[in-house]
Amino acid sequence: MTILRTSNLTKLFGKTLALHGVDLNVEAGRVVGLLGPNGSGKTTLMKLCNGLLTPSAGEIRIADMRPGVATKAIVSYLPEVSWFNDWMKVQDMLDFFSDFYQDFDAAKAADMLKALSIEPSAQIKALSKGTKEKVQLILVMARKAKLYLLDEPIGGVDPAVRDYILSTIIKNYNPEASVIISTHLIADVEPVLDEVIFLKEGEIVLHEDVDTIREEKGMSVDKLFREVFKC
Amino acid sequence: MLGKLMKYEFKATGRIFLPLFSALLIVSAVTRLLSGLQAQAPHIIGITSAAMLIAAAFVITLILTIQRFYKNFMSSEGYLMFTLPVTTDRLIWSKLLVAAAWNIICLLAVSLSVSIMAMPGNELKALLQSIAEFRLPTADYVFYMIELSAVVLVTMLDGILSLYACMALSMLFNKHRVSISFGIYVGMIILFQILAVIAASIAVHLDFTFPNGLSVFINTHPNGTLHALLLLTLLAVAAVGAVFFAVTRHMLKNRLNLQ
After folding, report:
1. B16 interfaces chain A, CB cutoff of 8 Å
2. What is the ipTM metric for this complex?
3. What domain range is A158 assigned to?
4. CA distance B240 to B41
5. Domain CATH for A207
6. Could you report the per-residue pLDDT of A91-110, keeping only the tens digit for each?
7. Of the listed ranges A4-13, A182-191, B229-238, the one predicted with least confidence
8. What is the count of residue pairs from A and B with beta carbons less than 8 Å apart?
9. What mean pLDDT do residues A98-123 have?
10. How many domains in chain A?
11. Chain A interface mutation, best of B68, B72, B79, highest count of A Cβ atoms under 10 Å
């Protein structure tokens, strides 16, 4: 089953072309790396899939639906930015997610918080940047979504936390769901990926299974990336 | 879902408004008690503090009306709000209804505070008594009251929606959104003034001699005419509000541009 399909997806910001004619198919049950240098259109693609931007041309289908209320109910999105209302406590965010997302597993979120010794009674304002990122990831991963869109989930944290986050992602996603991870830290995510998409200046330059890359090209994704995006 | 959105909106705003309005009422009551004392100084301090709290109540109500929309919908918090499985309409309504509720509560709190401090004891008693003795007047008066309240309420919604529309329009720009919103607001006020002047000068030159039937109707049914006028006013005010709502909705739905 195709969970995400885009055809000729194009986004212009004024005269700047952020995405150009992107045709993409992501099947259910896959972990996909969306890789590319800064400004290649990764965040734009994720925002389009979440209805935070409207395409200039082309189309997006998530589980065969256009982005809207129904797709938002099955897509779990981790944006690059911290979206917390800083007056809230961690517990308020758990309640908030329970109220709005039917697929949110509050008990699982509570377990994950406990494993990281984050107090539900803590004021979000008082948390460190890294802890905030962890809470945000826990909330996003405690949903039983059909599609997880994770924008730079490991960008701002140290390597130890990076490993924890990646194992959280892999342990917690539902096997029928797909995960798309955008990042430029390829070596870190490579072990968990099934396939990769290379995005360059708003166009897809490669979409391949990680095993195929290793077998046919005889190199790691990291090495291939360095070759494709050589300056 | 509208109910849940409003619940969180009340939580986010109540933590500021409730202490503010409680403080206002407490200071007013204490001032009232102090006025019975011989000493002048504590009474003056009480009145000054209450006056400052009244000013603060109005300013903070306006600022929070603006800030809740801007921060929750146009800053990074928008990433959370606009990926919730709810329609854009419900998001706007939740902000609008809660803001309107606080604006009304603010007016009530200020009136109550002034009454507590300024109303002589016998008048306060008379007021309470007249409330107790309140009997429903004629049907016409009841309808006037309903119509007037509706006009006041919808005018208030208009005012809030005009702020929302100006902020939402500033999403067409990538920088200086706060000053651009303010500029759009000022421009809009000037435009409305010009339109009002044009409408008035046209009206002066129009011939308002009604056909016989209508003037006879107005003379014989003064109440009917006034009701019709109030309802027309209500429709006009609601139409303006609908335009502001449509602009806000279009911007948030199709031109969303979060920073």
Report:
1. no
2. 0.93
3. 2-228
4. 49
5. 3.40.50.300
6. 999 999 999 999 999 999 99
7. A182-191
8. 56
9. 94
10. 1
11. B79
